[in-house]
Write a structure and sequence with these properties.
Blueprint lengths: L4 E3 L24 H7 L3 E2 L6 E3 L4 E4 L2 E4 L4 E9 L18 E10 L5 E5 L5 E7 L5 E8 L10 H15 L7 E6 L3 H8 L2 E4 L16 E4 L1 H9 L9 H25 L3 H9 L4 E2 L3 H13 L2 E6 L2 E6 L8 E6 L1 H12 L2 E2 L3
Helix pairs in contact: 3-4, 3-6, 5-7, 6-7
Length: about 350
């Protein structure tokens, strides 16, 4: 990941994209390699103007700012099952969608932490990683598509990390942990059940999930709660993604509680999920971070304000959700999390 340089792109080429997607949300992709050839993208150019950042600096709304050096950042990624995840042939591989993006911001000076929830439909110039790990182009589209790119699941996660880092002005991300939503039963079992307030009418899917009630989900209920869509409430993918985010946040809260009770518990979770998780963190890394977090105060979840619109950034003649971050909100949130200090020009 290049956290030091941010390029102002000068060249632009456009061609037509053909894909099959879910209603009001980007979803299944028939051929990610075809998308690479047909997306609107901007090629990187060695002769482009560059803004060089020093260590401890971010590029915020076009201005260089220093930030709190005590902060460390860890990205949690929740993916769907729309790609050929696990395919070991780089020529045929395509990633999933990053439906859940939660950045845990840990201040090592007091171990207090906050969670930045990033809307999966946030529009940005998404890096398009090739199967060999290089990035030659970026495309203006929703950040969830970053996981499409790369030659294997690890590279898809790394490209997603790169996208989040670039969205946040070049913010270093010290670790990531990615789980596919297909692993939810195993995750739920490992933690001993997660408590949620049931959102939506599940009567056609699972009558035990009663709308509005607080329920500690068993493994089967957790699967239904995370995966069911068409037969629940308004049937939209957005409603399902909201349930997924709520589940993950509740899981994290319980994980902190269990870690506070038993400092070895993170190792239990890490080992039980090792075969299905994609991460650059070792078991010791995972345990060390969670034990720090469990000693601090949860400062809550924060999100960017902005505007949701329906658009066709992806040229498939289908309308999709797009989220544009408000510049003022972007600065305020980044300042709250990282104590920005503009560098004098």
């Amino acid at each position: 990941m290049n956290r030091k340089q941010f390029k102002l792109i000068l060249g632009l080429s456009a061609v037509v994209l053909a894909m099959i997607l879910f209603f009001l949300g980007i979803s299944k992709v028939e051929d990610i390699m075809e998308y690479h050839a047909m997306a609107d993208y901007e090629e990187d150019d060695d002769e482009e103007e560059e803004i060089t950042l020093n260590e401890g600096e971010l590029l915020i709304n076009g201005k260089v700012c220093r930030y709190d050096a005590a902060v460390r950042n860890y990205l949690i990624i929740g993916t769907d099952v729309s790609g050929n995840y696990g395919d070991e042939n780089p020529a045929e591989y395509r990633g999933n969608m990053a439906d859940v993006l939660l950045l845990v911001v840990l201040n090592r000076s007091d171990n207090n932490y906050a969670v930045l929830e990033i809307d999966r439909n946030t529009v940005m110039k998404v890096p398009m990683m090739n199967a060999d790990g290089t990035v030659n182009a970026r495309s203006k589209m929703q950040i969830c598509t970053a996981h499409w790119y790369g030659g294997n699941p690890k590279m898809s996660s790394e490209n997603t990390v790169n996208a989040v880092s670039e969205l946040l002005g070049g913010l270093p991300i010290e670790g990531y942990y990615e789980l596919n939503m297909d692993s939810i039963e195993q995750l739920n079992h490992a933690i001993g059940g997660v408590t949620v307030t049931v959102e939506g009418d599940f009567s056609e899917v699972d009558p035990t999930l009663i709308e509005g009630q607080d329920i500690t989900l068993n493994d089967k209920q957790a699967y239904n709660y995370i995966h069911a869509r068409m037969e629940v409430g308004d049937g939209t993918n957005e409603a399902r993604m909201a349930r997924q985010e709520a589940y993950i946040k509740s899981f994290l809260n319980k994980l902190m509680e269990r870690t506070e009770e038993d400092k070895s518990f993170p190792n239990v979770i890490y080992k039980e999920m090792k075969e299905v998780a994609v991460t650059d963190m070792t078991g010791n890394d995972f345990s060390r971070v969670l034990n720090r977090v469990s000693q601090g105060e949860n400062l809550g979840t924060i999100t960017f304000e902005g505007k949701h619109v329906i658009g066709q950034l992806i040229n498939d003649d289908v309308d999709h959700q797009e989220f544009y971050i408000d510049d003022d909100s972007y600065y305020k949130v980044m300042d709250k999390l990282f104590q920005l200090c503009p560098v004098n020009e």
